[in-house]
Design a protein that fits this description.
Elements (H helix, E strand, L loop, with lengths): L3 H4 L5 E2 L9 E4 L4 E7 L3 E4 L2 E15 L4 E13 L2 E3 L2 E9 L4 E3 L2 E8 L4 E3 L2 E3 L7 H17 L1
Parallel strand pairs: 2-4, 3-5, 4-5, 5-6, 6-7, 6-8, 7-9, 8-10, 9-11, 10-12
Antiparallel strand pairs: 1-2
């Protein structure tokens, strides 16, 4: 019998799109997640997520059909769809021309294309590093702020 990796595709992962170990996971357009997503692989979301997306050292891509009502913590965030929540990226945040973000951004580098929608504040974090306690208080504070609206 052939090894599992060569015979069967890995569900939710496309190992050919990333040179880093772990590949890129994909959350399809018809999927809805309520809760917390954590992991150590790049993630592309095309469905909807409510809660928290925590990919500390990885890239999150919010696809054109995606709807996130979530706080995000990642190395890099690229938004083509809609996000309501705070984004914290150690490296950079990109909001593409049809992307929409309502929430506060904290990152070392930011790019907002013409035509993108953004409402919130931007904090440039030159160090690009936050301690665990800073990260936890950030998500707690953002949930408190979100529930106060």
């Amino acid at each position: 019998m052939a090894p599992l990796d060569s015979t069967y595709p890995t569900i939710g992962s496309d190992r050919s799109t990333s040179s880093n170990s772990g590949g890129t996971a994909r959350l399809g357009a018809t999927l809805h997640v309520k809760g917390e997503i954590t992991g150590n692989e790049d993630l592309a979301i095309d469905g909807s997520v409510e809660g928290l997306v925590h990919l500390e050292d990885r890239k999150l891509t919010v696809g054109p059909s995606a709807k996130l009502t979530a706080d995000v913590i990642a190395r890099e965030v690229v938004v083509y769809g809609n996000v309501k929540g705070n984004l914290r990226a150690r490296d950079r945040i990109e909001i593409k021309k049809d992307g929409s973000v309502v929430g506060d951004l904290t990152t070392a580098r930011i790019m907002i294309e013409d035509g993108a929608y953004f409402k919130g504040s931007i904090e440039i974090d030159k160090a690009g590093e936050a301690s665990d306690s800073d990260t936890k208080s950030y998500t707690r504070a953002s949930r408190a702020t979100a529930s106060a609206d």
